[in-house]
Design brief:
Strand content: 15-25%
Shape: globular
CATH topology: Collagenase (Catalytic Domain)
Number of domains: 1
CATH superfamily: Metalloproteases ("zincins"), catalytic domain
Number of strands: 6
Helix content: 25-40%
CATH architecture: 3-Layer(aba) Sandwich
């Protein structure tokens, strides 16, 4: 079975997806981490039917464990690094977010050492794991959560559908079942 060709170019009529590498050896471990992030974010927006909305802006920051540790401690009260954090800053359903003037919906921040260690431990390609975490973070910006079991199942199903659309495997397959995502909640019970 052939996989769909992946479009790594940004849609000039769609949302702005800004990617900044601020820490960690992202380019040393992955040839084009910015393209991987944009592709995953675009796939999430396409699934949410927000991919043609020029009024949205999402910021993705690729940094290191030290920076994410500080953010996790200061904003979530958890004194340790984590793989991905999402910081919603706007209402993606507002009229302003549907205008031609970009409205920042939020930031997705990823920790280099944690992301690469998890990919290695789960025996996943780093690009596939990074794609999953970007999708996870973008979904948080649009109100998805995993605090309650029904919310977690909905979010996991949505992530799997988006990643399958990119030709990537189910991130919740057996090798990932005992790992954690985001807030250290077990992925599946």
């Amino acid at each position: 079975m052939s996989r769909p060709a992946l479009n790594l170019t940004a849609d000039p009529n769609g949302p702005e997806i800004a990617v900044a590498v601020e820490g960690g050896d992202w380019r040393g471990g992955l040839p084009d981490p910015e393209a991987v992030c944009r592709l995953a974010a675009q796939a999430a927006l396409r699934h949410l039917k927000r991919d043609t909305d020029p009024g949205l802006e999402i910021s993705i920051v690729l940094t290191d464990d030290a920076a994410v540790h500080i953010l996790n401690r200061d904003y979530r009260g958890l004194d340790r690094p984590t793989n991905v954090l999402s910081f919603p800053s706007g209402d993606p359903m507002s009229e302003e977010a549907s205008s031609a003037v970009p409205v920042l919906i939020g930031d997705v921040v990823l920790a280099y050492e944690t992301v690469f260690a998890e990919a290695d431990r789960q025996r996943k390609a780093v690009a596939a794991h990074l794609s999953h975490l970007v999708v996870h973070g973008v979904l948080h910006l649009f109100g998805y959560d995993h605090e309650a079991e029904d919310e977690a199942q909905r979010m996991e199903r949505t992530e799997t559908e988006i990643l399958n659309g990119l030709g990537l495997p189910d991130p919740y397959s057996d090798c990932a079942r005992n790992d954690v995502i985001g807030d250290d909640r077990p992925i599946l019970k």
